[in-house]
Amino acid sequence: MPVAEPIDDMSLPLLMPLGDSALLVRFADALSDDANAAAIGFARAVRARGLPGVVEVVPNLVSVLLRYDPLRISYATLAGEVRLALWGGVPAADAGREWSIPVRFDGPDLGEVAALIGVNIAEFIAAHNRKPLRVLATGFAPGFVYCGLLEQALVVPRRGAVRPEVPAGSVLFAAGQTAIAATAMPTGWHVIGSTEFRNFEPEAEPPTRLAAGDTVRFEVAR
């Protein structure tokens, strides 16, 4: 069984086997803007390169999962291909598509979040919408999207209790990120609003509209 190994330059990511048909390329142990941008850039470069035997490329917040066919390529060979792809450094993430998403800022936790930050609700909404955010990753639940990273002054922890269910379209806020729930789901994030935008259509191809690296500008729904 292959074991996790850093590639030659320790400043570059860690290569880690997952089972007998997946390789994880991890760029950091914790979320940062640089690590997320590196994961997105690497995922796009791998897709463009068309690594042999790779059947799926899945970027996460700070890592990229490469799922491969072990009958077509071995872990050792794929790890070598990855090292070669990273030889000149981590590819920069090109700008993705740009989206404007209207939000009704009427969530049950909106006042609490504003108070935690030390502003009133109007000031929080203005600060939240001031700058566009990058789609950091999608996943966790169908169509769930993480957007960030927000400035440090807007960082608040998750709630102390989990809500059993919030509806699709809930706009969530915690840990320097804004998320959009595309399906009904439980959450420990603060609910600050809702949107008509849906990022999951199971019959569509692809079933999600937003992709890691896209840019989202949140605005007040009229």
UniProtKB/TrEMBL annotation:
Keyword Secreted among UniProt keywords: no
Every Carboxyltransferase domain range: 13-210
GO MF, one example: hydrolase activity
Protein name: Allophanate hydrolase subunit 1
UniProt keyword annotations, A-Z: ATP-binding, Hydrolase, Nucleotide-binding
Record carries keyword Nuclease: no
Source taxonomy: Bacteria, Pseudomonadati, Pseudomonadota, Alphaproteobacteria, Hyphomicrobiales
Annotated source species: Devosia albogilva
